[in-house]
Design a protein that fits this description.
The complex is a heterodimer of chains A (113) and B (485). With 113 residues, chain A is an alpha+beta fold. Chain A contains three helices and four strands, in the order H-E-E-H-H-E-E. An eleven-stranded mixed sheet of chain B has the order 1-3-2-4-6-5-10-11-9-7-8, sandwiched between helices. The chains are: A alpha+beta (113), B alpha/beta (485).
């Protein structure tokens, strides 16, 4: 498996590190005029990722057909604390780091036309 | 008497009890040292005013004859991925510039309640992703033993601050070696406890199934005293373990006689620096002379640890870092379109290494590749864990190098991520298996750079590791060797 530059761009877009594709006049989805990841950075990223992916191919040597997956190293029961109402953060404190706010709400760009 | 900042927490605590010194004097001395050695870049934030206020409160408690913890009045530094109410918490990322946390990490609260004085927040690789501290968005940290070299990472600031005698104690986090590897490169003691031993509540998440908080110190006794405060079940962290927590500092005596020590041949292969190998062999000989039973063992899946780690860790990164969207906190790059606003914010806010890992993690979790990469890695993790289970059937502890080489020059590995990743080759499997690992300083290279040995124990057997570390300290007195700054 080789990760080419278009795959890197696609993954970056899924991870919100790249701008979304746009619909052109013909109604087709196409690349936007502007990219957040420049061509040089993109090709470097593809190169680095391929090196890593190439390395991890070694896992294919192993026969894993009878192996159960482990989600973390220590086998302990997952404990839930009792469902008791605690002291919530006030809206003032909750909003203290908001880049933009309106009253007691976080302000975001308009999402509904 | 040496300057206060030079002394260990144990010495300071004794002098405080004898009323020879005050906590305010200790804090003052540490701040003087921090400013005198500022070029090391260990701290991202310090809070002198609040620290002095807390020191005064500690002195007042002592004057009243209150019963105090062993660390009351003793300074400690926290890696900047620990949420604190005072000072910003940035994880050394631009995306969290000046973030003022609305709550504090459980470990920070426990330290405060024990009367420890939090001096500041230490520099690190951005979101703890790195092995050299060069991926900090603010500045690199320099190794106190040679300022042209890296301190290791990602808890490079916490390790260097303790080595440089700026502070006797600090906390770091370790996801793949981020406490042990910098401890080794800076010549101090560093412990990654068993997964679940210490609460992760209020720690900025990197890879949640691997992350663990742990202490740095210049002696095993200080390490134990700090672990005593932070260890234990936390109802606010569902992955913290509800198991009995011993008093680590009680009767911390060297325990080596009759101890079964396993030396895994897989950790002594290609890429291991000769001087590191020599030092480790000398340490093993010394343990044998002290009555330990040393056997060669095999951890056969060691060679798969790096691949397994990078698949699991990056998958968890892509998921954990999805929360940084410029809406609730952190930096924001405005755009009239919500999607574009989030993408612009993340693209400008995350450094290159963080972006690389997010993209890789998104890839290994994406439709069609999940089973081939992430699913497979989760299975190999089972095999790596079983390697340790099998080994601990016949040995009490495993000894390996902590890092295959000593501290490397700044800039020498930043261009090739794979070569950087290889510096964690001896520490990664420990996180995958969830077992505890302790890096012990055991000497220096000819160039004067510290070398560390890693002690790996069974789940929840931190005390055993501390007892062996105590043996090394009593024999080598590494805590008395201080860098020329």
């Amino acid at each position: 498996m080789k990760i080419d530059e278009s795959v890197v761009r696609k993954m970056a877009r899924l991870a919100y590190l790249e701008l979304p594709r746009v619909i052109n006049e013909q109604g087709e989805l196409c690349e936007p005029d502007e990219h957040l990841i420049g061509d040089e950075q993109l090709s470097q990223m593809a190169k680095d990722l391929n090196k890593i992916i190439e390395h991890v191919q070694q896992l294919n040597e192993l026969d894993l057909s009878d192996v159960e997956p482990t989600s973390h190293g220590v086998p302990l029961p997952s404990l839930l604390r009792s469902d008791v109402v605690g002291e919530p953060l006030s809206s003032e404190v909750t909003l203290q780091n908001a880049p933009a706010k309106a009253g007691t709400a976080f302000r975001v760009p308009k999402v509904i036309e | 008497m040496s300057a206060l900042h030079q002394q260990t927490a144990e010495e300071l605590s004794r002098a405080l009890k004898a009323e020879e010194i005050s906590s305010q004097q200790i804090v003052q001395s540490c701040f003087e040292r921090i400013s005198e050695t500022e070029h090391l870049g260990c701290f991202l934030h310090v809070d002198q005013a609040n620290a002095l206020k807390a020191a005064q409160a500690s002195d007042d408690r002592r004057a009243k004859g209150e019963k105090l913890s062993a660390l009351d009045g003793i300074p400690v530094a926290l890696k900047d991925n620990h949420m604190t109410l005072d000072m910003p918490t940035t994880a050394a990322s631009k995306i969290l510039t000046d973030l003022q946390s609305p709550y504090e990490a459980t470990v920070a609260r426990k330290l405060r309640e024990a009367g420890a004085i939090i001096l500041g927040k230490t520099n690190m690789d951005e979101f703890a992703m790195g092995s050299s501290n060069e991926h900090s968005a603010y500045q690199a940290v320099r190794n106190p033993w040679n300022t042209e070299c890296v301190p290791g990472g990602s808890s490079g600031g916490s390790a260097a601050a303790v080595a440089a005698r700026q502070v006797p104690l600090s906390l770091g986090t370790d996801t793949g070696g981020s406490i042990r590897q910098p401890a080794s490169m800076c010549g101090v003691y560093g412990l990654k406890p068993t997964y679940g031993r210490v609460s992760r509540q209020g720690i900025i998440a990197f890879a949640s199934s691997l992350d663990q908080v742990g202490p740095f110190a210049r002696t095993p006794k200080d390490l134990a005293a700090l672990l005593d405060i932070i260890a234990g079940y936390d109802p606010l962290d569902s992955t913290s373990a509800q198991v009995e927590t011993p008093r680590y500092s009680d009767e911390l005596l060297p325990q080596v006689k009759g101890l079964r020590i396993g030396i895994p041949n897989e950790y002594f292969g290609e890429g291991l620096q000769d001087e590191v190998r020599d030092r480790i062999e000398q340490s093993v000989d010394s343990l044998k002379q002290a009555g330990a039973i040393v056997t060669e063992i095999s951890l056969p899946h060691t060679q798969y640890a790096l691949s397994t780690y990078y698949l699991i860790a990056t998958a968890e990164v892509s998921s954990n870092l999805a929360r940084y969207d410029g809406i609730r906190y952190g930096a924001r790059i405005e755009d009239r379109d919500l999607r574009k606003m989030i993408a612009r914010t993340r693209s400008a806010g995350f450094g290159a290494e963080v972006q690389r890992r997010i993209v890789l993690g998104t890839f290994v979790l994406s439709a069609g590749y999940y089973d081939a990469y992430y699913g497979k890695a989760q299975k190999v993790r089972t095999l790596i864990r079983k390697d340790f289970e099998n080994a601990f059937d016949s040995v009490d502890v495993i000894l390996t190098p902590t890092s295959p080489f000593t501290a490397f020059p700044l800039g020498s590995k930043t261009k090739d991520p794979m070569s950087m990743y290889l510096s964690d080759i001896c520490t990664l499997a420990v996180n995958l298996a969830g077992v505890p690992g302790l890096s012990v300083p055991i000497g220096f290279s000819d160039a004067g750079l510290p070398i560390g040995a890693q002690l790996i124990g069974p789940w929840f057997k931190e005390k055993r590791l501390l007892q062996i570390a105590q043996y090394f300290e009593e024999n080598l007195s590494m805590s008395t060797k201080s860098p020329d700054l």
